[in-house]
Design brief:
With 325 residues, the chain is an alpha/beta fold. The chain has 2 domains: 3-174, Thiolase/Chalcone synthase (Peroxisomal Thiolase, Chain A, domain 1, 3-Layer(aba) Sandwich), CATH 3.40.47.10; 182-324, 3-Layer(aba) Sandwich (Peroxisomal Thiolase, Chain A, domain 1), CATH 3.40.47. The protein is 32% helix and 26% strand. The chain is built from 10 helices and 13 strands. The strands form 4 sheets. A 5-stranded mixed beta sheet has the order 1-7-6-4-5, sandwiched between helices. Helix 3 packs across helix 4 and helix 7 crosses helix 8 (256-266). The two termini are 21 Å apart.
Amino acid sequence: MSVVRSVVTGVGGYLPDEVVTNSDLAKFVDTSDEWIVERTGIRTRHRAAPDQAVSDLAAPAAERALRAAGRTAADVDLIIVATTTPDLTFPAVATIVQRKIGAPVGIAFDVQAVCSGFVYALSVADGFVARGRSRCCLVIGAETMTRLMDWEDRGTCVLFGDGAGAVVLEPGEGAGNTEDRGLLGFALRADGGKQDLLYVDGGVSTDGRIGHLRMQGNQVFRHAVVNISEAVEAAAADAGVPVASVDWFVPHQANQRILDGVAKRLGIDPAKVISTVAEHANTSAASIPLAMDQGIRDGRIKPGQLLLLEAMGGGLTWGACVVRL
């Protein structure tokens, strides 16, 4: 019996022009290139221009994903943007992207799960596409995380960058087994009791400020390795595949030490890990689609291969997804 799967038919990414090196940060932050690389693996990050809103990053990423899929904005009937740094309190970034790319009237909304947003958004999109409610969906992760930085806090300001990545999801017929193309399994988690480990200290309904990102780095690291590993195993079980069978591990690009720790705990060959953290830093919800885009463009990720995606962010939220391209 055939089933309908949500198939990734195109991937695209966009990074702002400005590149900020560790040495650039060391000019006004008490840090050094050696200190940052040793603790995070990060060497550079991209920063949006003062006149660039997050939709200005999301729109070109969406257009590149559509071109890769052989589609145009006229085909799009659903846009979901995962972001924690919207242009405005409202409307949703997705509606602004809809206007900027010239997509017709359809469904458009945002998902807020911080760094886990892209995985959450894929799951939401699957509920539309695999059930016949969308024929061409854009799922976008886009962030201007540098706008949330306290530039006197060297423990956080060196970690983040700006960017956007997008995928096109379309319905495809499958046989209902693990060889099908498309989204095969998910595991999503949240624990609001861990809010104080990673949060922004301002908000519309509390003090009216944007606020700055605050993080207890050591605690986040500990929870990340344990929680992400559990979610990965649960998503693989949901998909009916062993973790060892994946072709590529495409994690949220938080910190090279976290990537290494999760891969080691799961027994994943480091050669199978797509890492962009050295060049992009942590772009929150944008990091997974940006890493997918780079892996596809450099020829490592190929059609038909099995990918394992994972992320953890403020909330705490975390999750994983298994997808065959």
